[in-house]
Amino acid sequence: MKAQEDKARLIIYGEISSDKWDETEITPNEVKELLDSVKNKDLDIFINSSGGNVFAGLAIYHMLKRHEGKKTVYVDGIAASIASIIAMAGDEIHIPKNAYLMIHRSWIYTAGNKNDLLDTIAMLEKTDMNMADIYYEKALEGVTSEKILELMDNETWLTGKEAQSIFKIIADGDNKAVACLDGLNINDKVPEILKAKLNKIEKVQNKENEKILELEKAKLKLKLKIEE
Prior knowledge:
By secondary structure, this protein is of the alpha/beta class. About 45% of the residues lie in helices and about 20% in strands. It has seven helices and eight strands; from the N terminus they run E-E-H-E-H-E-H-E-E-H-H-E-H-E-H. Strand 4, helix 3 and strand 5 form a beta-alpha-beta unit. The longest helix is centred in the last third of the chain and has 36 residues, at about 190-225. About 30% of the residues are buried.
């Protein structure tokens, strides 16, 4: 998050969180601090995020909407889940033809008795309708609210070119940025190209873990030998 003389830049590269557990996470408090320091300035918002906490994302969206300067959003790789809601705060939204916008219904881990579960369902329904209204505000003429809910039901992945046929966005040329896949829930809806990238990352991580394990084993053997 950087303030410049004529405008400010907000860079959302990472998961959306209510609390700061990792340097890559973005919280509402951080965004508020930036916006308080750049009142009325135009704002460029760069997004490459798989999403995160729904309520933290909604807070960021509403803060950005209230900001009086012009807000220009650039999706550099991916704006998925609640990050796609944040993208809708832009007065102008740019998504490269080969970048991604993913929208779906909110989901949650929960436990409890019947009443607890019914309360959770009611809360999720309200959250979903809230998000559907936000998407609908940026929908092209002729795109119905029912269509938006259908896209959310199906966990829809849209390239910039595809998103341009549904939302008021500008589909720019091809993008060279690598999509941020941290925290992404992998299922059969995820585009194959992203699955391949995730599998590649997982293989690299597994190899790194194997190396660490072998190193720890070697250290243990050396320690036992010295003790003998």
